[in-house]
Structures are given as C-alpha cells and as structure tokens.
Write a structure and sequence with these properties.
CATH class: Alpha Beta
Number of helices: 9
CATH architecture: Alpha-Beta Barrel
Order of helices and strands: EEEHEHEHEHEHEHEHHEHE
CATH superfamily: Aldolase class I
Strand order of the largest sheet: 3-4-5-6-7-8-9-10
Radius of gyration: 17 Å
Largest sheet: 8 strands, parallel, barrel
Shape: globular
Number of domains: 1
Strand content: 15-25%
Number of strands: 11
Length: 270
Amino acid sequence: MQKMNTIPVQIGSQIIGGNDFVVIAGPCSIESAPHFEQVSHAVKNSGAVVLRGGIFKLRTHPDSFQGMGFNAFEVVKTIKHKTQMPFISEVTDPRQITDLLDVVDAFQVGSRNMYNYDLLKELGKTSLPVMLKRGFSGLIKEWLLAADYIVRGGNEKVILCERGIRTFETATRNTFDLNAVAYLKQNCQFPVIADPSHATGASSLVTPMALAAAAAGADGIMVEVHPLPSQALSDGFQALNFTEFDQLMEKIKSLLPVLSKKMATSIGEL
C-alpha cells in the first residue's frame, strides 16, 4: 500500500509532520513556577522544541492532584517568553477553551475525552492545532472519526497521538500500539506522534519505546520529564529525570539518519 502524504501542522515555530522529528517534553503537571522553569530549561538544553505541561488534570482518584488550574497561566506565559518555545496543554472542558487561547499554542485532548464530541466540536471552531490522543479503548476507526469532528468544525490542524490502549495485558500500564503508528502513516494525512510515557507507564521502558516509535514512522514523541520523578505530584513512575531524557535524545539523534530524518531544532535561545 502506498504511503499517504502527511499534511504538516505548525505549533508555534515548529512543523509537525515534515521531515524533522519533533520532541515535545515537560512535566505531567505544572507543580509550581520554579518547577516548570527548571524542567523547561532542562528539556530545551537537551533538544526538545515544544513544551508540555498539565494545567487542568483529569485524574482517576478525586483526591489526586488536579493541576494548578488558572494559577498556572502566568507561569506558562513567563516560561514561554524565557525559552521562546511553543506550549501544549490538555483542555478538559469546553468552558476552558476561551481562557486557554491566550496561553497555549496547541490544545491536547486526552484519552478520556476522545469521545467527548461536544468538546471536539468546540475545538473545531478554533484556529489552534489540536493533538488528539487515542482513547484507551478506542479503535483506530473511532479515533479517525473523532478527528473528523474537529475537521468538520473548520479546524484541519489535527495531530494524532498514540498513547497506548487497554488490553488483557497487565505487565505494563497500557499496550503501546505501534501498529497504529505505521498504519496511520499509510492511511491518513494527519501527523502522528507517540507518547511512550503513558503507553508504558514505566520510565525504564520509555527510551526503547520512543526509539521504536521513531522507527515505526512517528513524526515525533511526547515525553514526561521531572527533576525528581519519585516526588512528582502526578505520574512520576513514568517520567524521565534530566539525565535519562538527555540520554534518550542522544540515542534518537543517532537513529534518525538511518530513517532519513533529522531532529527538529528550536529557534529560541536560553
């Protein structure tokens, strides 16, 4: 089957779906201004070109940290200015969209919201890119139909993110469906990235699965990074520390020439 041509999507200064491999990195949740600044500078120094960070968090347990919420807005704006990096964060409710427009460079739709069609319709009315994560029980067909809700609203800037699915296997948090990455690159025109952090739920598996995602044809990866993962307020068990992330980036740089790709670079200077 002939591979379909990907239609690139731009997040800030970065092109997703071109020849450059894009690395998006940052903490699962923004915990404080010093914390986010420390992580942001570290991931940029290692070669990441887009920042991620949770502002509003959907958590299974109601007592878990739900994110800084609106208190994170000024923190994000300050760090974006300092690093000159675009920023992506999850939107969990249609009522957040208007406020987030002034903060994010792209919206992320989490796994739980892939079926939230009202949210997808509202995001279709915006002009910012939307990264649509696969539902943890979502078929590829259902995932593409969810993307179509955004496109039919008028927003064609959709990026698909494979983040693992729930199967009978319990050794890992999810089952990383790299078949989906290769299949989508052959059968749709959306850029496709992979999230090995959520897909595996284990920091020791993030590096090998990130490399596998690149080999499968992903246009980039999104990785969770924390200075002290054991002390993270959310998902520390799947976060890389700074040294581990730097080592991952070096391995990706070595792999990409074999794939006729190169690492995306940031235009901003620290």
